[in-house]
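Changelog entry

Holo records now carry the ligand SMILES as an explicit input line rather than a separate metadata file. Below, a converted record for pyridoxal-5'-phosphate, shown in the new format.
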Amino acid sequence: MSAETSPAPTAATSPPAAAPPATRLPLRAELVGLEPYGAPQLDVPVLLNVNENPYAPSEDVVADIAEAVARAAGGLNRYPDREFLDLREDLAAYLGVESGVRPRAEEVWVANGSNEIMLHLLQAFGGPGRTSLSFAPTYSMYPEYARDTSTRWVTGRRADDFTLDLDHVRARVAEHAPSVILLASPNNPTGTALPTAEVEAVLAAAEDVPGGCVVVVDEAYGEFRRAGTPSALSLLADHPNLVVTRTLSKAFGLAGARVGYLVADRAVVDALRVVRLPYHLSAVTQAVARAALRHADELMAQVDGLRAERDATVRWLRERGLTVADSDANFVLFGRFDDRHAVWQGLLDRGVLIRETGPEGWLRVSIGTPEEMTAFRDALVEVAGL
Ligand SMILES: *Cc1c(COP(=O)(O)O)cnc(C)c1O
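Structure line, unchanged by the conversion:
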């Protein structure tokens, strides 16, 4: 069709479209003007920005997952198992091997990523008129979960070395009487793990909150903890208000599958069963998770290598005069730069994407393969003149 015969007016010649009638959407006031959350998803050779496991599942694991999904597909006319006790049992067994603490299946809960786990927790234990408390710098998603459940969000601060200042913690707990305390251990973006005695001190402070307080220890990076660093799982038996959350997204290398879980007293889990959406965990997700858990040894085999690479990265950055937070996770927070954005951009220009997060002057790099870490170091030497 030639330009002459085409009746379609071009943008330049067409009359301005009539303005649509002004539609007033009844958006909740606290959401007006907000942008969706998200780290940039850029197409860059070296992705070290969202703490993923750099190793894709092996062909064996992929084949087993595909077979499990095919089997689940044959039953997709039916709603999935609402209680998924088999998956909860598999996760309990995995934790028994990983941490030495083996919960009962009824004490395990699973959702679409630990972000949905947190949402369930705040739906049950937060809500209008209630407060959740954390200590910054910490995970940037927590305030979003609080907002979405109309829970008041309050942060105290961490000490300069990113550990908890227990006097400050006790004072904030007494001041705000939170119904939920959220503690990431190892913490994101700092990598800081909480010693058992500190979790116990927070639990003791929570005891004094009138009306009760649930203490959530988010161990998304738990498997990367250094030798001798404990898991809060060991405290569950004595603390019915303690919740420990985990995920298959990080050490397990299944971020794309969206599987998070928690362990807590059965009464906590029963409360979450009330607020979850019916059939929230699809049959496909359940099948993928169970198939992957059969390969836990293989999927976890990379963890030791990643921890060694992490420790080497910390040493290398310190040798070059940078300040580095101790890390029990698969990422490292380092600085401090007068213009951290320029350093971040310089790395990106060289094909290395890290994360501009944490306090002013700091940057966070996720631990990748040895080749990716070489690319990171080479780029940083050039950009920061180390
Ligand atoms: C990555 C991360 C998670 C995991 O989230 P998923 O929804 O399970 O992928 C949870 N907590 C923290 C602090 C994290 O950094």
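Spot-checked after migration. The mean pLDDT is 93. The first helix runs from residue 59 to 73.
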